[in-house]
Amino acid sequence: MASVLLVEDDPVIRGALIEVLSAHGHVVHSAALGFEALREVTARPPDVVVLDLGLPDLDGTDVLRMLRGISRVPVVVATARDDDAEVIKLLNAGADDYVVKPFSGGQLAARIGAVLRRTAPAEPAPAPPAGDGSGSPAAPAVARTMRVGELVVDLPARSARLAGRELRLTRREFDLLAYLAAHADQVVSRRRILADVWRQPYVEDQTIDVHLSALRRKLGERASQPRYLHTVRGIGIKLVAPR
Fold first, then answer.
1. What is the pLDDT of residues 18-68, one digit of tens each?
2. Is 72 exposed, middle or buried (0-12, 13-18, 19+ CB in 10 A)?
3. Which residue, 100, 112, 97, is CA-closest to 20?
4. What pLDDT, on a 0 to 100 scale, did the predictor assign at position 125?
5. Mean pLDDT of the residues in the chain
6. In which region does residue 236 sit, left (phi positive, over 0), alpha (psi from -120 to 50) or beta (all else)?
7. Is the pLDDT of residue 183 over 50?
8. What contacts 64, CB < 8 A, 6 or more positions away?
9. Where do the domains of the chain lie?
């Protein structure tokens, strides 16, 4: 059961979605305005936000950006457009998923479930034994801070710095960068990224490309002149220290 904030100004649609999501076991709160939604997220943080873009007081994309400024809560956006430019715009603004109107309550519930599975904290690995009695050392602990060249990724703080400058990353951008840093100097396939970062077997390749492009921009590089993020054609992505 999850706490859902439904941001929808149409009372008929809002009532129908509240009924469906409640039937799926969620606790649903609602807001009809963008400013009201921002207050709700601050005062009573939900597990996930469903955000309609056609709000009367604020543009929905602006609400999404403001949400990202105050919270890492997963956001599923409801949009009337499904063209590439719109999807890229929403993902860059911080959306975790989207549904295209008209959509069913069951589809929305499934999207919410998928987002919650992808964004759930990873289960901590069981602590290795101190030794096996044969004198073999215990397995090393996972690094909490990783360094690749001048890039420092701090897992507990969920922050990253490049040459001392903090990088302003979205939740998914940080997850992707941290994963690549944990596998520095290794080529990581897109399939592994989908399974370990997105935690689902299929995501449009363009989704990964959008996040990689955003990371490159924030790292001060381009795909044609990579420093940290290198694409190995047909195989995957590698994070390395610049030489």
1. 999 998 888 999 999 999 999 888 888 889 999 998 899 888 888 888 888
2. middle
3. 112
4. 41
5. 82
6. left
7. yes
8. 51, 75, 77, 90, 93, 94, 95
9. 3-119, 145-239
Q: What is the pTM of this model?
A: 0.54
DSSP letter string, 18-60: HHHHHHTT-EEEEESSHHHHHHHHHHS--SEEEEESB-SSSBH
Read off the amino acid at residue 197: V
Instruction: Please compute the mean of the pLDDT values over residues 72-79 and round it to a whole number.
Output: 88
Cross-strand pairs, 152: 147, 161
Query: 217: alpha, beta or left, given left = phi > 0 and alpha = psi -120 to 50?
Result: alpha
How large is the average pLDDT for residues 116-138?
51
Dig out the tokens for 34 from the structure. 């963008």
DSSP-derived secondary structure letter, 127: P
Residues 220, 199: Cα–Cα separation, whole Å: 28
Q: Is 75 within 8 Å of 64 (Cβ atoms)?
A: yes
Q: CA-CA distances (angstroms) from residue 236 to 5, 19, 117, 156, 205?
A: 37, 43, 24, 27, 12
Q: What are phi and psi of 122, to 5 degrees?
A: -65, 140
Q: Which of 185, 169, 165 is nearest to 177 (CA)?
A: 169
CATH number listed for the domain at residues 145-239: 1.10.10.10
Assigned CATH for 3-119: 3.40.50.2300
